[in-house]
Write a structure and sequence with these properties.
The complex is a heterodimer of chains A (113) and B (112). With 113 residues, chain A is an all-beta fold. Chain A contains no helices and eleven strands. Classes of the chains: A mainly beta (113), B mainly beta (112).
Chain lengths: 113, 112
């Protein structure tokens, strides 16, 4: 079984809809991250959480919110989706003692029409 | 302007040829990593370099961290079709809370 799972894997939605992307991990890591990937831009950090009570904005948090429901679960919400949020979204985890190594989920391809 | 610039953006070569991908910045990084990403999957860590001038080898892949810790290169010897993928460099800066900053990626295609 995959250590970091994301649901859904693909989603097509309409402008203005609320969308939630979910991430679960079985690695026992405290740190979790949400990134979006756009062609030629690499991965950009949206939000990150170092433990259940810690939530931090990343480079591009506007239009997004997150919830850390448990150590193993970190969800990303788009309150009112817009077309320029069409992208690949990745969840990642890391161990607090090996901070530089991140483990990524398989990604969610989101299309906002 | 991205903090980490990768070049080239795209590289197409024949099987057996060598290739080099570059990752450059004006900032000093406490560590730098290389990931490979295949279609439909998330990035997978290949290597982490932390010391200026460090060279690491992973089979046919050679990674180098610049002396000033501002740049890195990935060299693949005798590339194979299985090396096809998106190669991403990512760096951490202590002053920025050790969050990873990614380059734009280099898409490598190795044709049989």
């Amino acid at each position: 079984d995959a250590d970091v799972t994301q649901t859904p894997r693909n989603r097509i939605t309409k402008t203005g809809k609320r969308i939630m992307l979910e991430c679960s991990q079985t690695k026992g890591h405290d740190r979790m991250y949400w990134y979006r990937q756009d062609p030629g831009l690499g991965l950009r950090l949206i939000y990150y959480s170092f433990d259940v009570k810690d939530i931090n904005k990343g480079e591009i948090s506007d239009g997004y919110s997150v919830s850390r429901q448990a150590q193993a679960k970190f969800s990303l919400s788009l309150e009112s989706a817009i077309p320029n949020q069409t992208a690949l979204y990745f969840c990642a985890t890391s161990d607090a003692n090996i901070r530089d190594t991140q483990y990524f989920g398989p990604g969610t391809r989101l299309t906002v029409l | 302007t991205q903090l980490l610039e990768q070049s080239p953006q795209f590289l197409s070569i024949q099987e057996g040829e060598n290739l080099t991908v570059y990752c450059n910045s004006s900032s000093v990084f406490s560590s730098l990593q290389w990931y490979r990403q295949e279609p439909g999957e998330g990035p997978v860590l290949l290597v982490t370099v932390v010391t200026g001038g460090e060279v690491k080898k992973l089979k046919r892949l050679t990674f180098q961290f610049g002396d000033a810790r501002k740049d890195s290169s990935l060299h693949i010897t005798a590339a194979q079709p299985g090396d096809t993928g998106l190669y991403l460099c990512a760096g951490t800066i202590k002053a920025a809370g050790n969050k990873l900053t990614f380059g734009g990626g280099t898409r490598v295609l190795v044709k049989p």
